[in-house]
Design a protein that fits this description.
This protein is α/β, with parallel strands linked by helices. It folds into 2 domains: 299 residues, Arginase, Chain A, CATH 3.40.800.10; 75 residues, no CATH class. The strands form 2 sheets. Strands 1, 2, 3, 4, 5, 6, 7, 8, 9 and 10 form a 10-stranded mixed beta sheet that branches. A hairpin with an 8-residue loop joins strand 11 and strand 12. The chain starts with 6 loop residues before the first strand and ends with a helix. The relative contact order is 0.12.
Length: 387
């Protein structure tokens, strides 16, 4: 597919001329340079100037170019990866046209093992991201860093507050797990929290996540796609969002989670949504988003290509017997990064279907739980979904 047809080039005014800046490290689509050659590209930036699905945040469509102004002022790290900026998805006559263009572009990039970094735009674009995996018949895990669940009402059109329910209700369904990091209870209906438990999804309240940020790393590492909604960040750090609130993650915490995402070998796409230049203060939110993207790329450039199913000799393997549990729980600890995984008993008839999901990222605390003769909650949730 010739995806160049879906894109408008980046205007030169959004590309600082500093010879030491990131702009010199990225192959950027401009009128002068033409659409980038994708051979050998590992990361592709995609701007999506779409806000027709935004709720109370009109103007976020202008964020991609605003973010680029700050992103391309930053210096590249010691990276050995090729990055291209494909420009901005053309805004369709109907919002579904924009979804189609984003889905088709992502599908082609994923086939080429190129990781799309979506710079939005409103959060409903996550639905179009998911549809790219559906087109590839790939079962996926989604992690959202957001202050609410975005379930909406079943009968509403797709928007930034209802995209998740549309994903859950899609048939056939390719969603294995959804994780929310940073929800604030007063923004979430209790019935929605109950639904998340019934579906065996992972949810982490803001206070819990902030008290031990390293504990959310396995949840991010388990994701195929991560979406970060700017409303998850406190207003003082990211004022450029009409839905910004006093509480939320600090900017440095958001950057740390972006780096966790980049470092994850499993993750294949990421999206940054809902930044809005209309409400921004001296470009603070755009600058923070640019820094989050920088940290994501820094994490990606540091990947060490480790997964227990690939090179077993790179891992310590532990068999932990748990009372009233027929088989021991198998844990893996990386000799390189000291990260942990655990193997979930997967029936043979669905083992191939869930080959990317029955070895679950976990923490040392999960191993300690098993050693205390208890089955970790993370193990049970994955097991229930595969039965």
């Amino acid at each position: 597919m010739e995806i160049a047809l879906f894109f408008d080039p980046v205007t030169p005014t959004n590309i600082p001329a500093n010879k030491h800046s990131l702009s010199q490290f990225v192959d950027i689509y401009t009128e002068e340079s033409g659409f980038p050659d994708l051979d050998g590209v590992q990361i592709a930036f995609i701007g999506v100037k779409e806000d027709r699905g935004a709720i109370n945040n009109a103007g976020c469509c202008d964020a991609p170019d605003d973010i680029r102004k700050f992103l391309y002022q930053l210096h590249a790290g010691p990276w050995n990866c090729r990055i291209a900026d494909l420009g901005n998805i053309k805004k369709g006559h109907d919002i579904r046209d924009t979804y189609f263009a984003l889905t088709s572009s992502m599908e082609e990039l994923l086939r080429k093992n190129i990781l799309p970094v979506i710079i939005g735009g409103s959060h409903d674009l996550s639905y179009a991201m998911y549809k790219a995996y559906e087109a590839l018949s790939q079962i996926v895990n989604i992690t959202a860093i957001d202050n609410s669940f975005d379930l909406g009402e079943e009968e509403t059109e797709i928007n930034a507050r209802s995209y998740l329910s549309k994903i859950i209700l899609t048939r056939p369904n390719f969603l294995f797990n959804y994780t929310n990091i940073g929800y604030q209870t007063y923004f979430v209906d209790q019935s929605a929290i109950s639904l998340m438990r019934k579906l065996f999804f992972d949810t982490v309240r803001l206070g819990i996540a902030q008290s031990s940020l390293e504990d959310v790393e396995p949840l991010i590492r388990n994701a195929d796609m991560v979406m970060l909604d700017i409303s998850a960040i406190r207003m003082s750090d990211a004022p450029g969002n009409m839905n910004a609130t006093p509480n939320g993650f600090y900017g440095e915490e958001a950057c740390q989670m972006a780096r966790y995402a980049g470092f994850s070998d499993k993750l294949t796409s990421v999206g940054f949504f809902e930044a809005n230049p209309v409400y921004d203060n001296c470009g603070q939110t755009a600058h923070l988003t640019a820094q989050m993207i920088w940290y994501f790329v820094d994490g990606f450039a540091s990947r060490i290509n480790e997964f227990p199913g690939k090179v077993v000799d790179d891992f310590f393997k532990y068999h932990v017997s748990v009372n009233d549990h027929e088989q021991p729980i198998i844990f893996y600890k990386s000799k390189k990064s000291e990260r942990w995984w655990m193997e979930v008993n997967c029936p043979e008839n669905v083992r191939e279907k869930y080959e990317r999901h029955y070895i679950v990222p976990c923490s040392f605390a999960d191993y300690q739980t098993a050693c205390s003769d208890e089955v970790p909650d993370r193990w049970w949730q994955a097991y229930q979904k595969m039965m």
